[in-house]
From TrEMBL, chain A:
<dbReference type="InterPro" id="IPR003439">
    <property type="entry name" value="ABC_transporter-like_ATP-bd"/>
</dbReference>
<dbReference type="GO" id="GO:0043190">
    <property type="term" value="C:ATP-binding cassette (ABC) transporter complex"/>
</dbReference>
<dbReference type="InterPro" id="IPR050095">
    <property type="entry name" value="ECF_ABC_transporter_ATP-bd"/>
</dbReference>
<dbReference type="GO" id="GO:0016887">
    <property type="term" value="F:ATP hydrolysis activity"/>
</dbReference>
<dbReference type="InterPro" id="IPR003593">
    <property type="entry name" value="AAA+_ATPase"/>
</dbReference>
<comment type="similarity">
    <text>Belongs to the ABC transporter superfamily.</text>
</comment>
<keyword id="KW-0472">Membrane</keyword>
<dbReference type="GO" id="GO:0005524">
    <property type="term" value="F:ATP binding"/>
</dbReference>
<dbReference type="GO" id="GO:0042626">
    <property type="term" value="F:ATPase-coupled transmembrane transporter activity"/>
</dbReference>
UniProtKB/TrEMBL annotation, chain B:
<comment type="subunit">
    <text>Forms a stable energy-coupling factor (ECF) transporter complex composed of 2 membrane-embedded substrate-binding proteins (S component), 2 ATP-binding proteins (A component) and 2 transmembrane proteins (T component).</text>
</comment>
<keyword id="KW-1278">Translocase</keyword>
<dbReference type="Pfam" id="PF00005">
    <property type="entry name" value="ABC_tran"/>
</dbReference>
<dbReference type="InterPro" id="IPR050095">
    <property type="entry name" value="ECF_ABC_transporter_ATP-bd"/>
</dbReference>
<dbReference type="GO" id="GO:0043190">
    <property type="term" value="C:ATP-binding cassette (ABC) transporter complex"/>
</dbReference>
<keyword id="KW-0813">Transport</keyword>
<dbReference type="GO" id="GO:0015087">
    <property type="term" value="F:cobalt ion transmembrane transporter activity"/>
</dbReference>
<dbReference type="GO" id="GO:0042626">
    <property type="term" value="F:ATPase-coupled transmembrane transporter activity"/>
</dbReference>
<comment type="function">
    <text>ATP-binding (A) component of a common energy-coupling factor (ECF) ABC-transporter complex.</text>
</comment>
Amino acid sequence: MNEDNLLALRDVSYTYEGEDGQRVPVLQGVDLTIQKGSFVSVLGHNGSGKSTMAKLMNALLLPEGGTVLISGMDTKDGEMLWEIRRHVGMVFQNPDNQIVGATVEDDVAFGLENMGVDPKEMRDRIDGALVSVGMESYLQAQPHRLSGGQKQRVAIAGIMAMRPSVIILDEATAMLDPQGRMEVLNLARQLNRDEGLTIINITHFPEEAIYSDKVIVMNAGEVLMEGKPSEVFNEVDRLKQVELDVPFAVRLRHALHSKGIDLPFVLHQEELVEHVCKLLLTK
Amino acid sequence: MQITFDQVSHIYAKGTPFERVALHNISLTIPSGSFVGIIGHTGSGKSTLIQHLNGLLMPSSGQITLGDAVITPKRRLPHAQRRDIGLVFQYPEHQLFEETVAKDVAFGPLNFDLPTEMVEARVKESLEIVGLDYATIKDRSPFHLSGGQMRRVALAGVLAMQPKVLVLDEPTAGLDPAGRVTILEGIYRIHREQNLTTLLVTHSMEEAARYADYLLVMAQGQVAMQGKPEEVFMQVDRLRELSLDVPETVALVSQMNHLLPDKASLPSSLYREEELIAHLLERLSVPKEG
């Protein structure tokens, strides 16, 4: 396995049991590698298999066919289970379902206590983790009094205290208001940039994917597209076919370009503003 | 049904150390048949406001008029009139509880003692309005559906009461883009076909821009701004002051007007995406010869 590949899925398949006992395939023949230190966004519908994929990445689910490797560890290897879970932290959609402590610091301590970390070291790690998510002044706060975005940041601190190499955000911004969504997303980008953490952001919002190193589009249990944001979002029609949206600037440029207006591909709104203004002024 | 708030305040836990004023002296009028977008931060009073509409909360002072009915701190909405107000909570799928989809949707109308045949017809109709096929879904367990389908079943349960006012608290939160469009288009269709008065609480400026004909912006328990969407969206600075976003279309037009000379500027009424595209196409297209 390539040194840089932190995470690899090889021909992975998974099946759920349906309502009347029949088998419903949710993932089929998925091949993927994720590089150490990268920021990856996963887009796809409900039911496209993206959350199943996330759960396979930290051994919450085991593949039926194929192999999932985390830093070379096979998730099927039961002895490696706790090491894998420590490496790959997950933040889920509902902020209220993942807080266990009565205070913020208790909550962050939970994972460390389970690992039997020495109390003195625990103190350091909790403080460090809360600083890294900007919640250090809430040490004694009661989690239920925090905003949705703050709760998700506490959940991330709980993971950071475990010194992970990957954080998977499984639609972690879906239930937040716009402000909370920005908080969590900016934090993820900052941890990626400053601490070299690998981030996998599973999301419905195409705007969140603009700044990724790689975008993976899932559809009907398969990887439909994979590439840089500029490559993936350039295929507007293909994404539309599977009813997936693109960022606003891409959509607007596409609508104008397909009617014969000469505009280059853009990802960001600022670029679109510049190009369109230039055109308007030369008319 | 016309809705009026006259100097309505609501205080939670009055007389205790946890006392908090959630609504502060609110007066507003929502004309019958309008589609109102209610925008504001978490904690701005949006949910408190709408819970007054079907008697879940009583005003601490002031009075609310719903059609002919008057609600005051001492006077509740009469039981018979509650069915006129359909309130769809956040994450309504959490309230599904019956064994089958059909039973769940029928629960409300049966509680109001409607005859069985009539209930069945309403269940069928409501499920079809939200885009679910009655025959294939009626006997399924609501708990084995996808998130988007569960939410549509919950919405059908409210529609089966045939309300005159539909109040929706963030009906698209947590859904994927396709699910969001299905739900909102369905709501918009019912709104027009049945001439409902609809109140949509949303965090999404794009949703408000697309569907609402009137906007209420809430901040700190008060109505901070109100008016037609173009009037509200024109005040970009005021919205930013309230740390609210503006729709992407409005942000784009405002950025462009910043760079363009006055005579080439874009009208600020272009807040709907289709209209913005049409306007740009008209100005950028090469005029046909002849």
